[in-house]
Amino acid sequence: MLDIADELHRWARQGRPFAVATVVATSGSAPRQPGAALAVDSDGAAVGSVSGGCVEGAVYELCQEALRTGETVLERFGYSDDDAFAVGLTCGGVIDILITPVRPYGTEGAGDGDAGTEGAGDGGPRTETGPGGGGPRTETGAGNGGPRTEAGPGNGNPRTEPATDAATAATTATTSSTLTTALAAAASGEAAAVARVVRGPAHLLGRALLVRPDGGVTGTLGGHPGLDRTAVHETRALLDAGRTATVEIGADGSRCGEPVTLLVESSVPAPRMIVFGAIDFAAALVRAGKFLGHHVTVCDARPVFATRARFPDADEIVVDWPHRYLETQDLDARAVLCVLTHDPKFDVPLLERALRLPVAYVGAMGSRRTHLDRLDRLRAAGLTELELARLRSPIGLDLGARTPEETALSIAAEIIANRRGGTGTPLTGAHTPIHHDAPPPLDRIGPVSAA
Question: Could you give the 3-state DSSP secondary structure of residue 164?
């Protein structure tokens, strides 16, 4: 949800009710990871994606329904070989999606004429219609390939929509307030994490709390106070690491008589990319870094080259000796350092410091001969073989790149492969996963608010 925070925060400020569908669990070859979201407002406008197109139409309808009923629901989409026309994932995966109505800033009840009715208002079982026509929609089950009837959270019985009552409206208002606060924090670049109940007792489904790095908490999960305490502890751990993940809290920890599963979404400042060396290749790399969502700084000791005119896309341009500037920076484990200076008097003192920092990536441009000479100089400066093994040089993947833009793509590809655990080999003919993440670092990042 926080990946589309800018647009949702704008909707909230305008007082527009909306429903947000968030991927909360995946298995198999699911196209989007937990935290990916699609939102639909009361006028039918949509933003975001949960599947890359496979089930967007069905999820769009579920969001509209959540706006009518005011209820939070959990839905599962899979793929059935027995029914190729069922709504599901053609990639063969399974995704669970939480659909939550949000009525910001006192708009409870807006957008529907009677909060207690759905469709014709008869309160009976509902038949869902497919995204492309009037026929009934059958969702596919997880793992068994058969059609699935919808079940209410926490039981296996077909779900009949209950009328929205005062308790549901109050829960929606409390959750909406917490979520709109989380969206405001994410849109402004503040570090914060929101935890939502995605499995557990029915009356807790969708409840949310927001945790900030200073320990401040907004909202409640609505169960035993012990559940909030445990949730805050787990959420802060994921916020420290800048990660989005699910958390399982056992029955003892939840104090609810049954386990509770939380989806924790962390919103942290953009990861840093520092490009050392104000050359033409750097300008292309700055554009690639911005495209990947980095906060990009260009640093060079030569004021004639480090100018805004040459690097209009950079967030910062610093005129200083690279090693001296690096010593002033408080970097976390997501930071990326790209050394394009091509000059030992800049490279060696800079890399001597960079390779001892707990950052995600350190790469240096140069030929293989330059690289070997650089290694000798760094050994003489006292770096160990373990520290030298962290250096990506010559920088980038072997794409046969020649132009600045091609070289920037090569470097960006290596940064992604390093972060996600990719091999850099062609997927055609390979027996490697298409979507995979590198294991999380053993050490936490530390306070992300300083990143």
Answer: coil
DSSP H or E run through 287: helix 280-291
Token pair belonging to 137: 């929609």
Which of 205, 228, 227, 204 is closest to 218 using CA atoms?
A: 228
Q: What are phi and psi of 408, to 5 degrees?
A: -60, -40
Of 159-163, 187-191, 375-379, 382-386, the poorest mean pLDDT is in 159-163
SS3 414: helix
pLDDT at position 26: 85
Inter-residue contact 251 to 258 (CB < 8 Å): yes
The angle formed by the CA atoms of residues 56, 57 and 63, to the nearest 5 degrees, is 85
DSSP 8-state code for residue 42: T
Q: How many CB atoms are located within 10 Å of the residue 451 CB?
A: 20
Q: Where are the beta strands (DSSP E) in 7-61?
A: 18-27, 37-41, 46-48
250 class by beta-carbon count within 10 Å (0-12 exposed, 13-18 middle, 19+ buried): exposed
Using 50, 70 and 90 to split pLDDT, how confident is the model at 416?
very high
Q: What is the mean pLDDT of residues 152-165?
A: 41
Question: Among 229, 232, 250, 223, which residue's Cα sits nearest to residue 194?
Answer: 232
Q: In whole angstroms, give the CA distance from residue 23 to residue 239.
A: 19
Count of Cβ atoms closer than 10 Å to residue 198 Cβ = 24
Instruction: Say which residues have a Cβ less than 8 Å from residue 373's Cβ, sequence separation at least 6.
Output: 344
Ramachandran region of residue 183, left (φ > 0), alpha (ψ -120 to 50) or beta?
alpha
Please give the Cα distance from 418 to 415 (Å, whole number). Answer: 5
| Residue pLDDT, tens place only, 353-412 | 999 999 999 999 999 999 999 999 999 999 999 999 999 999 999 999 999 999 999 999
| C-alpha closest to that of 263 among 98, 78, 42 | 98
3-state secondary structure of 409: helix
Alpha-carbon distance values, 38 to 22, 206, 207, 326 (Å): 7, 16, 18, 39
d(CA 183, CA 203): 23
Q: Which range is least confidently modeled, 33-42, 108-117, 122-131?
A: 122-131
* Calpha distance 109→400 (Å, rounded): 59
Q: In this structure, which amino acid lies at residue 269?
A: P
- Tokens 């306070």 label which residue? 447
The DSSP element (H or E) to which 9 belongs, if any, is: helix 5-13
The pair of structure tokens assigned to 127 is 């038949």
Other C-beta atoms within 10 Å of 251: how many? 12
Q: What is the average pLDDT value for the chain, to the nearest integer?
A: 81
Query: Could you give the angle at which helices 368-380 and 344-354 cross, rounded to 10 degrees?
Result: 60
CA distance 207 to 198: 8
